[in-house]
Design goal:
By secondary structure, this protein is α/β, with parallel strands linked by helices. It is about 40% helix and about 15% strand. The protein has a seven-stranded parallel beta sheet with strand order 6-4-5-1-2-3-7, sandwiched between helices. β1, α3 (about 45-55) and β2 form a beta-alpha-beta unit. The longest helix has 19 residues, at about 165-180. It is globular.
């Protein structure tokens, strides 16, 4: 019985009505229209902070490139948020970009060397937003192959923000865009919602050992 596959209804029956209503409400607002890509960040606290913020804003996927710096899950910063996420770890930046393009994403890369604001982008198109390392920004190959370079609106003297803060500011702009357009236009198809809800319930009830939110791609 321990390895028996349960149905979605059977899993739903094992949680309280309050938890059931919360998960169903949250999954109905999840989106993959936008996703975050973290390229070789040095500080795992920054990565975990972006993941946690993405969960709060309802972005389901975060892609992490660890070609130079391996990522270690920091549970104290994540506060359990990664249980509700889909995290993809790549050993090669090329594999990440190829995967995103195959899914239909445009590639938008944060850069201090452009005049293009995030507000100038065509946000109606599925877009993967790259944030680069704390010291060097995004890799030259990433910049060379991006569809767009962008920066966040700034009015001070300091050239750039902390990367986790920049991620939060960026996701605020994306959320405002989706609210204005109608968030229902960007939510997941019903089948994807049901599959995601199943994973959430399985992790919540049975733990993440056999259903990890992290997928490693060599």
């Amino acid at each position: 019985m321990e390895n028996e596959i349960q149905t979605l209804d059977e899993l739903l029956a094992q949680v309280t009505e309050r938890r059931r209503n919360l998960l169903q409400e949250v999954v109905s607002k999840r989106t993959r229209h936008f996703c975050m890509v973290l390229e070789d960040l040095f500080d795992p606290h920054n990565i975990s902070a972006v993941i946690r913020t993405a969960e709060v804003f309802g972005l389901q996927d975060v892609h992490i490139i660890e070609e130079a710096n391996p990522y270690k899950v920091n549970k104290s910063i994540l506060k359990g948020s990664f249980k509700w996420m889909s995290l993809y770890l790549y050993k090669k930046r090329k594999a990440c970009m190829e995967s995103l393009r195959a899914k239909g994403y445009k590639i938008a890369v944060a850069s201090t060397n452009t005049n293009n604001s995030v507000l100038d982008l065509d946000l109606s198109t599925p877009t993967a937003f790259y944030l680069g390392s704390e010291f060097h920004g995004n890799h030259p190959d990433t910049l060379a192959n991006a569809d767009y370079e962008f920066k966040l609106p700034q009015y001070g003297i300091t050239e750039s923000m902390n990367v986790s803060v920049a991620g939060g500011v960026l996701m605020t702009y994306l959320d405002v865009f989706m609210q204005k357009e109608g968030r229902e236009k960007f939510t997941l198809p019903q089948k994807e919602q049901e599959s995601l809800l199943y994973s959430w319930l399985d992790r919540h009830i049975n733990g993440i050992e056999n259903n990890s939110p992290i997928k490693r791609i060599e």
